[in-house]
Amino acid sequence: MRPEIFILLSILSATPRAARDLPTEKVWTNPDVEALRATSPISIVGTIPTAKANEGTGGHRRYVRYVKEDDPAWYAEQIDSLREAIEEADAEIQTVENIRKTGVGITGAIDLDKLAVGVTPEATVEVREEEKNALEAEIDGLQDEARKRDIPAEAWR
User: Fold this and answer.
1) Cα–Cα dist 135/129, whole Å
2) Which of 7, 45, 88, 140 is deepest in the core (most CB within 10 A)?
3) Residue extents of the structural domains in the chain
C-alpha cells in the first residue's frame, strides 16, 4: 500500500463518521420558522409562557410580562396564608391561656423535641402576640399595595 493512501485512510478512520457528515450551518429566516410552525410546535426565545398576548399595531401580537403585584389572585393567596398563620398563633395563645386558667397540661418539663416559642407561658403568649402584630402589619401592607394598583378589596376578602 502506498503511504499516501495509508495516511488518508488513517485520517478518515480517526475522524468519527458523524463529524464528517454534519451538514453546514443553516440560517433560519422568518419563512423557514413559519414553515416549521405549521408542521410542529416550536418555541421562540424571549417569549414568556405566562405572558398575556395583546394585539399591537399592525395586527402583531405584543406580549405583556406577568407582574404578580397586578394579579388579584396573588394578593388573595398571600393574605390567606398570612391569615392562616395568625389563626395558628391565636390557637396557641388560646391553648396557653386555657392551660394557665385550668392548670391542666402544666408540667415542669420542657419538650426538647418541639420548638419552644417562650420558656414560660407568659413569654410564649408575648412572642406569639408580637408575631400576630407583624403578620397583621404585613397584611395591611399588601392591602395598601393592592389599593394603589386599583385592585378591588373583594379580591382578598
Assistant:
1) 10
2) 88
3) 14-66, 69-155
